[in-house]
């Protein structure tokens, strides 16, 4: 059996561990959304650049 002081320390450690796990989960979600945003940004930039090159290419052929 733990003393009240030791039990308070253990309870505090449990709360800190829960908070740390929650922060890690939130950070993981944010990083995942950031990664998706970057991938989509690169994809849209590539599509627009390719379309621009095609338009430029076909306009200069005439």
% residues in beta strands: under 5%
Helix fraction bin? over 70%
Gyration radius, in Å: 27 Å
Strand-pairing-aware structural class: mainly alpha
Mean pLDDT: 96
SS field, number of helical segments: 1
- Helix and strand succession? H
Distance between the termini: 90 Å
Instruction: Please give the largest β-sheet.
Output: none
- Unreliable segments of 5+ consecutive residues: none
Number of strands: 0
The shape is rod-shaped
Write up what this structure looks like:
The structure is a single chain. The termini are far apart. The protein is an all-alpha fold and 62 residues long. The protein has a domain at 36-62. Helices cover 94% and strands 0% of the residues. The radius of gyration is 27 Å and the shape is rod-shaped. The chain has one helix and no strands. It has one helix spanning 4-61.
């Amino acid at each position: 059996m733990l003393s009240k002081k030791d039990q308070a320390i253990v309870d505090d450690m449990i709360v800190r561990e829960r908070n740390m796990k929650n922060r890690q989960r939130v950070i993981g979600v944010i990083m995942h959304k950031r990664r998706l945003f970057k991938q989509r940004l690169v994809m849209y930039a590539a599509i627009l650049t390719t379309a621009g090159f095609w338009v430029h290419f076909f306009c200069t052929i005439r």
